[in-house]
Recover the amino acids of this structure.
């Protein structure tokens, strides 16, 4: 029996206990599961059974489970709504603050206010503090459940503090050292605490070179720091170095995943995370981009229609339209991907705007030249018409160079203007490059018309 | 003064000490840095200065730094080669085994053998065990530096074991419990050890539902498990449940990042991680795809040339070639991205091949119908020619549907055949869909020729 089957049987047993209203057996079986698996079970049953669960589990037990359920689950709102309000409020207070905030941010304003008013002033205060941080900043993903101590004590007393907070802190593996005014002055890992003698002073063993991020820093930068330094958590401070919270590695994994999915979605011109299996719904998500690009494509068609006479004189020109637009589009997509990636991984200050553009245009010239010469020879031989080959090759060279320019310039400009460069989607670049390619192609063709017809 | 400047000054001071041969001052300044920053400094200086470092730092100190330097750095080979062989071998033995293996895998066979022969039998043995695991499996990213204990002891004695291993283990935050035959029977976190009384028996507090992966499991599945359960590390076993090693979360972040970059690269038809700023080099990386697709594009051109007569009769047809190929290409790219993403995030068994294809084709029909009607109206009005509008709209509907079929079917087939579906690049799908779109377009056009000319 494999793991999947085992889990399925366990789930159906759990469901039986729930339906038979055998609370004690249910609790024993349910709490024996890992909280992630509890979440899987919870999400697999229907409303009536879930309501049964709310009477069998304490708000704290449910909160532990809610801490690991994917926060981007669409059903979260319904789950909260089907609980008694006071139960929901208590569960929210028992969750790690960062997760509770994420959850509350899914509800509408009046709902949010209702649950906050049902909490203790202290819990509500902690949550409110986090609620106002902007999306995608360190503040929006940090939690306030960390362990901080002062330097002027021994390892023994620090371990004592740790033991007391181990139950509520999101991680106890890093302990942050602060001064009387809560300025972050150092960090010590639990590993170091364990290695050192009980009577050692914290001030003698703490690491003063503590890496931290500011509360307004972009979450991508926070992720990059955690990745570079191989940290399990990172402290977040305000601009006067007061310790406000920590960001833990599990949240960073979600950030990395989300950013990757959004870059990928951008390149494809479709939100890959939101696509449903229902064709109507799926189509409605994809059509806005398709229709927008269709109208951009209409300008290309209009442009070609101006050259209709040229085409009727030399219908051979029609043969190479899709070859030129297609190849330039491919080259532009490559440029776009390189530019978006470079913007994502390099620091703001290292982004030499001009250098990347020049490098991409030069790359376009080289690829264009090679591709152009290849097509010059192929078309020349195939059509027994080297002047025509020259026109196609030349158009290819220019179209690829312009596509590379557009592919790198547009995301760079969007970045400068404060937009996410990944929004400059691949389909947009290819459709735009269709327009420029056609313009280039027919102009070169009409210039050399007399030689190849 | 911001952090960047501060670091720069620190680096130039370090370099001065190195050049002035002030070993004591250099060591003090250097070792005060975080190991990631040590790595940044090390990688910023030239060979002569690096050689100086090898005489100032112990192999262990250098190994700590090498543990965090990105393993995909191209210069790693050179770094190793410029060390004395015995120094390099000792450094490799001091590194975490998984990282040493990654490094050794970059060297050629004879080099690998040389360093292994210079190590102690024990160290070489540990490395050799990991060397033979296939790329991208749990075995290839696991490390053997974990802490394992037997259940039949108290928390106090377990903590004693932990303290002794804290220096060499890659993580001490999870302690794995094994039986006499090294079968994995449970896990206990350091958090639990700390909370519980010193006299508690491990067997009373360990968690028996330990989640583990098999040594041959795909690294993507390992990453998914760590992500789902919010683990900091995951035990790796053989098929008889013997504990072989652990995978830590920092390696998982690299896996997630690499997989995302490779999906993104696939969609763009260019390896975004390997692109250089040198236009010749960059072009040489991109040209293989471009030229391959150029020849696929040539088939489209050849196909159109068969319809040249049709075009010379009705040159208006040329006007809409790029609109139809472009829009179908955009739709195909959307389908491709959705299919690749779905293959990546869903379990093998849940992948209902047929359902996804049908859903994509239906989505294609819906988007195609909407787009087709829109273009029918626009072209009908613009050209005062509704039969022509009908031909374009009909071609659009069919081309989009076929593009969606290709965009979903091709990655699915590649997955079934054991290839990475992400290799079915966006440019490939658009170029292929150019071909089918043109075929559809001209066939429909010749069918209705008499009505619109």
């Amino acid at each position: 029996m494999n793991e999947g089957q085992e889990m399925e049987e366990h789930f159906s047993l759990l469901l039986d206990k729930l339906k038979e209203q055998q609370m004690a057996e249910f609790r024993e079986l349910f709490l024996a599961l890992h909280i992630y698996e509890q979440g899987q079970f919870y999400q697999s049953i229907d409303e009536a059974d879930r309501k049964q669960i709310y009477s069998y589990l304490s708000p704290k037990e449910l909160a532990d489970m809610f801490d690991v359920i994917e926060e981007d689950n669409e059903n979260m709102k319904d789950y909260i709504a089907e609980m008694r309000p006071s139960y929901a409020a208590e569960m929210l207070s028992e969750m790690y603050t960062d997760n509770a905030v994420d959850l509350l941010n899914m509800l509408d304003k009046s709902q949010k206010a209702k649950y906050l008013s049902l909490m203790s002033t202290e819990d509500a205060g902690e949550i409110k503090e986090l609620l106002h941080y902007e999306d995608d900043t360190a503040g929006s993903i940090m939690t306030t459940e960390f362990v901080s101590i002062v330097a002027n004590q021994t390892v023994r007393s620090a371990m004592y503090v740790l033991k007391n907070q181990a139950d509520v802190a999101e991680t106890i593996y890093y302990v942050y050292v602060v001064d009387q005014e809560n300025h972050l002055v150092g960090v010590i890992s639990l590993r170091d605490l364990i290695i050192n003698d009980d009577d050692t002073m914290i001030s003698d063993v703490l690491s003063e070179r503590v890496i931290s991020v500011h509360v307004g820093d972009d979450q991508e930068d926070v992720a990059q720091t955690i990745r570079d330094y191989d940290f399990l958590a990172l402290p977040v401070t305000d601009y006067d170095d007061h310790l406000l919270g920590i960001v833990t590695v599990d949240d960073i994994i979600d950030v990395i995943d989300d950013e990757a999915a959004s870059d990928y979605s951008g390149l494809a011109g479709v939100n890959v995370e939101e696509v449903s299996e229902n064709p109507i719904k799926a189509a409605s998500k994809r059509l806005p981009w398709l229709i927008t690009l269709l109208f951009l494509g209409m300008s290309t068609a209009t442009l070609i229609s101006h050259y209709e006479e040229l085409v009727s004189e030399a219908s051979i020109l029609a043969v190479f339209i899709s070859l030129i637009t297609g190849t330039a589009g491919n080259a532009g997509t490559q440029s776009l991907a390189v530019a978006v990636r470079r913007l994502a991984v390099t620091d703001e200050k290292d982004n030499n705007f001009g250098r990347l553009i020049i490098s991409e245009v030069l790359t376009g010239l080289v690829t264009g030249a090679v591709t152009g010469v290849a097509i010059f020879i192929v078309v020349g031989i195939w059509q027994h018409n080297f002047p025509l080959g020259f026109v196609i090759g030349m158009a290819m060279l220019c179209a690829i160079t312009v596509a590379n320019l557009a592919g790198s310039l547009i995301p760079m400009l969007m970045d400068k203007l404060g937009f996410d460069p990944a929004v400059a989607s691949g389909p947009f670049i290819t459709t735009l490059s269709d327009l420029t390619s056609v313009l280039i192609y027919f102009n070169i063709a009409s210039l050399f018309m007399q030689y190849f017809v």
